Amino acid sequence: MEILVCARRVPDTSENEIALNAAGNDIERDELVYSINEADNYAVEEALQIRDRVGGNVTVVTVGSEEDEEILRRELAMGANQAALLSDEAFSGSDGKGLATILKDFVKKGRYDLILTGVQADDGAAQVGGMLAAMLDYPFASLVCSITVEGGKLRVGREIEGGNHEINEIDLPCVLSIQTGINEPRYVGMRGIRQVASVPIPTLGVSELGVDTATVGEVAARVKRVDYFVPAASRGAQMLSGTREENADRVLELVAARGGLK
Amino acid sequence: MVGIHLSAQVASWLVTSRNLYLAIHVLGIASFLYIVSRRLVPLVRAQCDPRFDRPVARLGRVWKYWLGQWKHPRYKFAGTLHILIFAGFILLALRAFSFLIVGVSPNFVMPGLSGEMGHVYDLATDYAATIVFLCMVIAVLRRLVFKPARYAVPARFGKSRTADAVFLLGLIAVLMVADSVYAASHAAKFAQQSQAVESLAYLSLPWVLQVAFRSMSLATLGGLIAGAYLAHEITFYFLLCYRPFGIQFHVETSLFSIYFAKLDRGTIKPVRWGVADENLDQVKSFGVKTFEDFTWKHILDFYSCADCGRCADNCPAYAVGRPLAPRFITTKARDYAFHHYPVLGKANNSKALIGTIYSEDEIWSCTTCGACEEECPLLVEYIDKIVDLRRGMIDDGNVPQSLQKPLKALESRGNPYGKMEKKRADWTKPVASQLNGNVPVLDGKNAADTLYFVDSITSYDDRMQSIGRATARILTQIGTNFGILGAAEKDSGHDVLRFGEETLFMALRDHNTEAIKESGVEKIVTADPHAFNALKHDYKNVPPVEHISQVLAREVKAGNIQFNRIDDSDKVYVYHDPCYLGRHNQVYEDPRHVLDAIPGLKRVEMQRSRDRSFCCGGGGLMLFYEPKEDQRMGVVRVKMAAEAGANVIVTACPFCMVNIEDAIKVAGMEGKMSVIDLTELADQQMIRDVCPRELETATAGG
User: Taking CB atoms and an 8 Å cutoff, what residues of chain A touch B497?
Assistant: First the structure.
């Protein structure tokens, strides 16, 4: 099975202190450390596991700049067969639809049976997967938490509200957005990355992909971020001080007083 | 004994049996050599391990741990028993050897053992055989009736080995009885024939038997002599050839295991011996994945283990129900070796060890506290094997999710918490005003002769920062010209190395080594035993390093530090030895010396202290690992402190502090037990010559 995973490099929320910049329209990006978007990493792991079960290849692709190559390198170290960096001046400032357009043009250059994305990027809006599927006219399933291959179809499990799961059958080729927790991604250390240091990663731009520049980049973006702020801490928290037993009793009282216990 | 001086009558009988004996000798020795040669096959296929250096130190080890049985009395009863058996075997070795030769060459007398000397030796060995026999009876009773808990094998680790142990003990007893019957029937026969005879040792087994045999006919005695000889010979060779199949192989291998034992405490073996760091990228596979990835010495360890259970008995992981016991790391590997390298038939292809004989959780469960190695009478190594197995798992990407985040953060930020580098020195801010200015950051603008290496947990953890501030105040008080690396310091990598992430460790080590060199300091002080051990043993070419407890002890002895009296008479202190200060670096007395210098401080000892200290739960990455366990090590430790009658635990390690502080809460002992770091206590009690009031406020604030 030929599998494509769309990944993205994001500021690692666990290793950064996110603060607003002076203009208040973005976060302070100096001294940030980046890593692959967590859900995308699960998608790559899932692709590798499917490949190891049924054979085929895993390609990882990202839209970005030279700096974003590091996540592709990491995913190659994880075991992906190849990677591609989609990078062009014209791509910068793309909104979700623009990104989906770039990826669609990349997909059309190859032949993929299965396209995976992470359920959403840490700084994203969970929209690229769905748009990509629509542009390709492929079926789409979101929030996927299990995949089994059955002939030319897949059975995918989806998590739905309340922690329940449903199983769907979906035709190939298709696009799936992968939920974190679907697997346990393998560890990649510095040694693994060094071992793939010399693997070439092609950079593809407008001309290689045949992208219509009117459909991508800032010019085509119809969703623009206009503000960025940290919500003010709300009031109403009440701190209890007392022994554990006293606090427990007090909590019961408070909850009951507000109609939480019948 | 009389056996060696044979009379003509007996000799004639022996001559006719000589061919039989000779055949048994040849068969026995040939079988033994063949079996041993087969047992050596995996050692030959294993990884190299240069253990042929420092012969004097190694012979010293043999003298102390093999001949001197140094570790055995740590378990008084079993140890005494073993020393008696060992001494008996050593004494009886010559006798057994002569005994075997006599079957073929009846007039043989071991050189040096003729005449009076021989008689003394015979008397001694009569007693030795008796003592060994009695020890066997006691040992069998222990195994079958008293059943010490440490011999038990929980089902998840395999089958009970009691039957094998009892069988082997029984064989030795048979050997002793056969020897004694032979000697006794000889003496009885000579007595009946009124020949001059050397007396048997009074009240020894041969002596008792001789009394019993006194009225037997000469024919019966002749039969007994032949029977005893044959029984002895067959048992001897059977034992010799059977031992390489079980726990008694140590009789042969222990001498080698101890001679080749690891000499350098606190260190971790390199990924591959003989491969320089810069060439490691060319090594295809890291660590131990298959049996043959172990070094030959580690496989020798597997053979040598006597399954005495002392390691597991002292293992904190085993004590709290984690799926690990050092003993079974060894016995499972030995079973694997015997199964895959059979004495008859072809050696099998090697399979992955993780998922077959070992589980991932088993290997991650080890805190590398070193209690097992400290206890093992045969100096079997465990930490290097665990680290090698972890290296293998890391290399395969097989790492628990809970550890991946801190590892990633160590890679990108130099600390496991993913905190910003520039905030690494933030802990100094609250003390800056009392330290005649600041804790200088040695960034090229400032210079000092001593570096305080803080390490990640003390730099970033709110609670542990207090240890950093106490340390800085102590260093200031004693007039040390010191500074810190600040943002240029990264995690020492101590536990990154011990969790098997070699490449990341090397990056951290190289970064810090460079930063330390650039700072131009002449010595290093740290309050974190893990950093202390890393800088001392894992780093090369850095200035000498001391733990703060060593500095404190020296200054106390020199009279440069004096302490205020502790007036609270209800407080009873107990010192908890951190593994990487105590066992791995033998710093036991310095912290105690400091505590005892505080007037009015009441101190007790836990039963498990010094080299038997019980790990708090482990440091470094172990704080992030989510083990499968019945209870926390820290809780067990806190209860030990309570049992000792203490209500304040003093430790000298930030990781011990985390674990013990949590454990006090988990055990519901808040208010009844508290924990304080040695530096915090010293800082709190220190008599200061400058602005005492201001500093007191600072201490309370810190």
Answer: none
**Tell me, what DSSP letter sits at residue A79?**
T
A212 in B contact zone (CB under 8 Å):
no
In eight-state DSSP terms, residue B620 is G
* pTM > 0.90: yes or no: yes
- For an interface test with A, the pick among B354, B364, B411, B505 (most A C-beta atoms closer than 10 Å) comes out as B411
Q: Quick: pLDDT tens for A24-77.
A: 777 888 788 899 999 999 999 999 999 999 999 999 999 999 999 999 999 999
- Residues 3-32, chain A, touching B (beta carbon < 8 A): 12, 14-17, 31
Nearest to B504 among A184, A185, A189 (CB): A189
Tokens of B302: 């597997």
Is A113 an interface residue toward B (CB < 8 Å)?
no
- The structure tokens 């994203």 sit at A124
CA distance B336 to B392: 18
**Nearest-CA distance from B488 to chain A in Å?**
15
A194 inside 8 A of chain B by CB: yes
Judged by CB atoms closer than 8 Å, whether chains meet at A187 and B281 is answered as no
- In a 3-state reduction of DSSP, which class is residue B160? coil
**CA-nearest residue of chain B to A187?**
B397
Confirm if A44 and A78 have CB atoms less than 8 A apart: yes
Choosing among 3.40.50, 3.30.460, 3.30.300, 3.40.600, the CATH entry for B572-701 is 3.40.50
| Measured CA distances, B67 to B62, B81, B84, B131 (Å) | 6, 15, 12, 18
- B418 to A12: CB separation less than 8 angstroms, yes or no: yes
Q: Where are the alpha helices (DSSP H) in B548-632?
A: 548-557, 589-596
CATH number of B415-557: 3.40.50
Confidence band, pLDDT 50/70/90 cuts, at residue B700:
very low
C-alpha torsion B7→B10→B13→B15, nearest 10: -40
Nearest-neighbour CA in chain A from B391: distance (Å)? 11
Are residues B503 and A189, on separate chains, in Cβ contact within 8 Å?
Answer: yes
A245 touches chain B (CB under 8 A): no
- Same-fold call for B415-557 versus B572-701: yes
B156 vs B361: CA distance, rounded Å: 13
Smallest Cβ–Cβ distance between A189 and the set B407, B409, B412 belongs to B407
Rg (CA), chain B: 31
pLDDT tens digit sequence for A74-125: 999 999 999 999 999 999 999 999 999 999 999 999 999 999 999 999 888 8
Residue B552's pLDDT band, with cuts at 50, 70 and 90, is very high
Which residues in chain B are closer than 8 Å to A188, comparing Cβ atoms? Answer: 397
Q: Do A14 and B413 touch (CB under 8 A)?
A: no
What is the average per-residue pLDDT within A213-218?
93
Q: What are the contacts of B330-333 at 24+ separation with CB within 8 A?
A: B330/B301, B330/B302, B330/B305, B330/B380, B331/B157, B331/B158, B331/B161, B331/B305, B331/B307, B332/B157, B332/B158, B332/B357, B332/B358, B333/B291, B333/B294, B333/B299, B333/B302, B333/B357
Contact B384, B269 (CB under 8 A): yes
Nearest CA in chain A to B423: A17
User: In which element (H, E) is residue A147 found?
Assistant: strand A140-150
- Which CATH number is correct for A2-220, 3.40.50.620, 1.10.150.20, 2.40.170.20, 1.10.40.60? 3.40.50.620
CB contact under 8 A, A14 and B418: yes
| Contact status, residue B235 vs residue B171, Cβ threshold 8 Å | yes
| Contact residues for B537 (Cβ-Cβ < 8 A; gap 6+) | B264, B265, B266, B267, B268
B432 band by pLDDT with thresholds 50, 70 and 90 = low
Residue in B397, B403, B412 nearest the CB of A15: B412
Instruction: Return the domain boundaries, chain B.
Output: 8-246, 415-557, 572-701
